[in-house]
Amino acid sequence: MAEATSKPRDGVQIDLISAERMDGLASMEKIRMILDGVRDGNIVVLEEGLTPDEESRLIEVTMTEISPDEFNGIEIETYPRSETADQSFLDRLMGKESTKKLTVIGPANQIETLHKDETLISALVSRK
Amino acid sequence: MGLLTELRDSISRAASTLFSEQDPKRIGIYGPPNAGKTTLANRIARDWTGDAVGPESSIPHETRRARRKENVEIERDGKSVQIDIVDTPGVTTKVDYTEFLDHDMEKDDAVRRSREATEGVAEAMHWLREDVDGVIYVLDSTEDPFTQVNTMLIGIIESQDLPVLIFANKIDLEESSVKRIRNAYPQHETVPLSALEGDNMDEVYDKIAEYFG
Questions:
Q1: Antiparallel, parallel or unpaired: β A121-125 and A111-116
Q2: Any chain A CB within 8 A of the CB of B16?
Q3: What CATH architecture does domain A14-125 belong to?
Q4: What pTM does this model have?
């Protein structure tokens, strides 16, 4: 991230990005910010996650950036979208879609999911 | 929740059938790598057109381009339903060419395969956003369905209000658990099948006609 100070020599940088900061960005700006962080080896934590459309574009852009021996892609973890499933068609038609869910994104070769269910995500983060 | 979900599903199904007289609907076959998407696409295409869609393999990312089989006419209860089947590459958020080396592949071939796989996944996502009218989501019923890719993709499909059927594939295998899939995605209809052995295909075609006809 642009404002992060230089990375400590030994350790993993975690960027916790507030919903407020994300609100002001266009979809592609969000995706760029996430991927720039992840490609630097950082773990990016989003307070409120991405919309389904942004998730779809994040997968697409990630695929275009994968490069052998350099970048293998991302690991992304969120809780299942239970709120959305409970919403009615009319709610979503009226733009009341809720996508607020903590999301963790990291380099595929540095983050490994140990356990995941509706209420708990447990992950192992390693150094490069 | 059930009532609202049913209402939403019936509205989206009704909306998507409005145009059924003009064009066959494009039904995307989605799911993670190695779920049996191409085996299913081939089974449907062979049953109703006599041709296959593409080669099947146990090596992940065998399908690296979306392939469309047009005008597949499925007959159910005296009526016929016409669809285009789009077999898509397995969706993932990571591709590591070294995994292909475990399948007796040379490095150059593994790197090429991984490049093509990444292009294929990007293509599959694009089709999902722009070019499909309904989705068959294929899961390997011997695997844990609670993965991030499945959660995200089903969320993406739901956000577009596309009619979706979940197919619990590989029920011929001992470790298969259809219940685990039903529990993970209770908001959608899950149909058990073995695309390889042709088990329960009658119900598969009934549901395709019901959802996408």
A1: antiparallel
A2: no
A3: 2-Layer Sandwich (3.30)
A4: 0.85
